[in-house]
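Thread: quick sanity check before group meeting

JM: Hey all, I'm pulling together slides for Thursday and realized we never actually wrote out the predicted structure for the chain we discussed last week. Dropping the sequence here so it's in one place. If anyone has concerns about the input, flag it before I start.
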Amino acid sequence: MPDFKLLGPTEVLDGDGHSRTPGGPKLRQVLALLALNAGKVVSVDVFVTELWGEVAKKAEIKTLQTHIYHLRQVLAGGIVATQAPGYALRVDPHRVDALVFPRLVDRAAEHQQAGDHRAAELVLRDALAMWTGPALADVRLGPVLAPYATALHERRLRAQEMHMDARISLGLHGEVIEELRMLVAAHPLNENFHAQLITALSHTGRRTDARHAYEGLRALLHAELGVGPSFAIPDPHVRSHPGKEIRR
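JM (edit): ok, ran it. Output follows.
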């Protein structure tokens, strides 16, 4: 049974590690729709909407059938099945990284709620390691696939926040500073990353750096949004949750 990787460039690997990745852009769109709905039927109308953005016409249905035929040739094993009112990919959802990732994040959230930050950190580390680039990186995103990609990126961002929370809760302040600087640079308006960075700096005795980071955030938010930070600078002697308002 092949493994389907969508958290980055599309890749399909068979049990021996050989690539069965389709090459054409339309085939990758069809594959992505099937893989993101592994074990479920995707209707012909959904395929047509994604590929052509309109109600199914005879010529387009015929073209879709050709795409399905070629995809079957590439994947082999009879895993692409015809099932009214469309087609289905007969694989275990655990073979699709884009379906496994959200489940891992949910599991990590349960560990965090239970106070088991070590377990949460380990699960989140594995989950984030699944990403090799932007979701569906080499897939043309139509009106159906675009929301999938957006949702995956939002879940990845939340997982990164949770991962930093878990590591900070484990006292790994010094280890997360550089990574948080990169996350702040990549997501400059994300206050949670800024708060986590300020917390880490503060808890490692770098109060001046923490103050500069806070003032930099305040200037950025004022210039971009006309608002100030939603949290006060963390006090290393007060236990607090990064990203939440801290009152003194």
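AS: nice. Strands lie at 3-5, 11-13, 41-43, 80-83, 86-89. The longest strand covers residues 80-83.
JM: adding both to the slides.
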